[in-house]
Amino acid sequence: MPGFTLPSASLLAQSILSGIFVGALYGLLGLGLSLSWGLLKLINLAHFAFAFLAAYLCYQMASMGVDPLLTLVVIVPAFFVAGAALHWVMARFSVTPFNSLLLTFGLMGIVEAVIQAVWTADFKKLESAYSSAKFKVGFLYVPIPELITLLLSVGLSIAIWAVLRYTDLGRALRAAAEDPAIASAFGINEKKNALVLAGTCSALASVAGVCLALSFSLAPSQMYAWIGVVFAAVMLGGLGRALAPLLAGTLIGVSEAVTMAVTAPSWAPIVSFTLLILVLVLRPGRAT
Amino acid sequence: MIKRTPLVILGAGVLLAFVPRLGLPAFYDSLLYLMLHWIVLATSWNILSGYTGYFSFGHGAFFGAGIYTTTTLLARYEWPFLWTLPVAALVAALLGAALGAVVFRVKGVRGELFALLTLAVTFVIGTIVVNTPLDGGQGVSLSAVPVPAVGPTQSSTFYLLALAAATLTMLIAHAIVVSKFGAGLFAIHDDEDAAEVMGVPTYRYKLTALAISCALAGVAGGIHALFLSYVTVGDVFTITVPLTVVLMSVLGGTRHWAGPAVGAIAITGLLYSFTAADHAVAGKAMTGVILIAAILFMPDGILLRVQRLFRRGAVPADAAIARTPLAPPIAGIAAPARGLSGAAHGAELLRVRGLHKAFRGVRALAGVDVDVRRGEILGLLGPNGSGKSTFINVVSGHYLPTAGEIVFEGKDLAGHAAHRIAGAGISRTYQIPRPFGHMTVLDNVALATLFGGAVRDPDAARREAMSWLEFTGLEAKANARPEDLNLHQRKFLELARALASRPRLVLLDEVLCGLTPSEIDDAVALIRRIRDQGSTIVFVEHVMRAVMALTDRVVVFNHGELLAEGTATDVMQRPEVMTAYLGKAHA
Fold it and tell me: Which of A144, A164, A200, B505 shows the smallest number of beta carbons within 10 Å?
C-alpha cells in the first residue's frame, strides 16, 4: 500500500478542480443513461458506443479543419435519429430491461469493430484551437476544453430538468414511465414520446462524445473503461432524474481526484465503486 | 433416464481424454482448451445466475480470485501446481459467500441492481489486487513454473486439466437441475416470495448456489493462470469475462444445464475461426450481431428452441411419466393429514395474541387476538383495508410482525422465516395467483410437496402432486403452463399448491374473488373437501354466500382491530359490523 503523501494546498485545489471537470463529463454521459433507464426501462450500453462514435466523427471533421464545436450541428441530429431507430427496434420486439443490456452490449461490440476498422485501434488525439488553451485564475489553471464540458453538462442537465418538470412532454414522459398502459389510456402518445426521449438520450451521448474528443485521447477499447464509473454515478444519483447524474458524477470525480492526489492514481477506482456498493446495499429501494 | 445423463457426461469426458493421443497439431489442443475453459466458466455462472435469475456481472472477480490465488501460491510459495487448484476454489467460494451473505440479506437487490453490484465488486477487488504485492501493478510472470506432466505435451496437459474441470462442472450442473435444490433455485427465479412461502429456504439456497458457482470459476482461474503464464489485473478483472459468459449462456439457454456449454462451444469456435483467419475485428462485430439476433429471435436460447422443435412432433416424454403409474387412490393420501391423529377436534391449533404490524407508521394490525381451533373453517371478514390480508401475510411469514405472538401447535412462530413456517405446517394461497411461470402445473404443485412437505425425491413429489391435481380436478392440465390456465383453474392451482405440503392449517386469501357463480359452487365444494381431509382453514372472503355456507365461526376486522367474533349469521347482524361495512346512517 503506498504511503499517504499530503499534497500542498494548491495541488489539492487543482485536483479538486480537475475532479469537478471530469465529474461533469461523468454526469453528461450519465444523463442520457439515467433517463433511458429510469423512464424507458432500457439499460443502454450502446450509449457509450454512441458517445465514442460521435467523438471519432468529431475528430474526423476537426482533422479536416472544422471547428470541433461546430460539428455538433451535424452530430446531434444524426445521433437523435440513431437513438430513436434503436428504440423503435427494441420496442418492436418488446425487449426486457435485462435483455436490453445484452442487446446493446452486442451493438457496442459492432460499433467498436467499426471504429477499429475505420480509425484503427491506436490512440487518437484531436488537435484544435482549444486543445492546449487555458487560463489562470489565482494559482489555478483552467483548461478550456474541460471548461466547455462543464458548461455543456450543467446547461443540458438544467435544461432537461426544466423540460421534465415544467412541460407537458415532461409530465407525459414521467407518467408513461410509471404506467405506460394507463398513460396511453389518458391520451398520451406514449410510443411517440418514447422515441423522442430515446433520440434525446443518444443526442446527449453524442454531445458527451464531442466533449470526450476535446479533452481525452481516443481508442475504441476505451469505451469500456467508462461503463463502471458512469453507472456508479447514475445509480448513486437515482434513475430518471436530470440533475442527479451531474451531482453524483461531480462527487465521484472529486473524490477520485483527491484519492489520486493523496495516494496513487491506481487507487482511484475504489472510491466510486465503494460508493456504489454502499448505496446499493444501504438504500436499495431508492435506485429502482 | 435420471441415471443415464451423468454416465453420458462421464463417458464423453473419458472419450475426449484420448484426443491428445491422436497427435493433432498443438493448435487444436489450445482451441479445445479454450472451449472447455469457457464451458466451465459459463456453466458455473449459470448455476446461480441462470437457475435463479440473479444475473451476476462479477464472475470476473471470482475467476480472478482463482487466478491470483494460484499465481501467488506458485510464484511466491512455490506450491506444486495441482495443489493450488483446491485452494483457488476455496478462496473464490469464500469470497462469493461473503459477498452473498451481505447482498442476499438486502431485499431490494435483485435484477439489474445485483448485476451492477457484482460488477462494482469486480473493480474494487481488481483495484485492491493491483495495489498490493499480490500483483504489484506490473503483473506476475509464471514462466519459471514447471507445467506438470499430466499429458504427453504441455498443451495437452492444459487440455486434460480443463477437460476434467469441465466434466466435473457439467456433472454438478446436471445434478443440481434434477435435485430438490435445483427445483428450489428455479422457483426462486420465477417468484422468490412465493418460493419462500412454499418452504424454499431462499437465502441459504442462493448462497449455496453462489458458492458453488464461484468455486468452479476459481478452478478455471487457477488452471488459466498457468496457461497464460503471465497475469495482469487489466486482463482479468474486466467486464469482458462476465459479459462473455452471459452471452454464451443466453445464447445456449440459461434454463438448461447444458445450455451454457452449447453457447460456449459456439462462441469460442466462432471467435477462433475469425482470429485464425486474421479477422479479429470482423469476429467482434459478428459476435455482436449474433448476440442481437439471439436476444431478438431466441430469447430462451438455442437449446430450448431445439427442444421445442423436437417436442412438437412426438408425444411429450414427461407427460407419459406423469400419467402412467402411480397416482395412489385419493383416500390414501387424503385421509390423515399429519398430526391430526392424536389431537381432538376443536382443540386450539393457532393462537395469535396482540399481533401488531406497522408499515412506517401506518398501523395495518393494531393488536389482534385470534384463536383457530383444529378442524374448523374460520371466516376472516372485514371491509377493504381492515387488515385481513396483512394478517395472512404476517402469519405466513411474508411480513415480520412488529409485535405479538403467533403460537402454532405450541410453538411460537413469530419472526420466523416464511420457509420455516411453511415447514411447520401452515400454507397459504395468494389472492392474485402467483404460479411459477416457467414450470408445468404439475411441477408447481410438486415444489410445494418437496419443500413444505419435506419430501426429498423430486419424482416421489411429482407422484404425490399428481394426486392433488386430481383432488382439485386439474389432472388434465398437469403438463400445461400456468399461463394456459383460466382464472378459475389458476385459483385451483393455488389451492393444490397450498394443499400439497399437507398442511394442518391453510390460509385462503380471497380464493373466490373474480369467479362466476357456478365456479364459486365448485370452489365451495372443494373447500369442504379440504376440511374433510383433515386441514383447518382460515378463509378470507367477501362472497357472503360462501361465508354463510362454509364457515363454522367468523371474526371481523376493522381498522386493524378485532371488531366481532361468533357465528356468521349472528355476527353479520350486529350493528357495529353493519356500520363498518355500510357506514353510519345519518339520522
Answer: A144
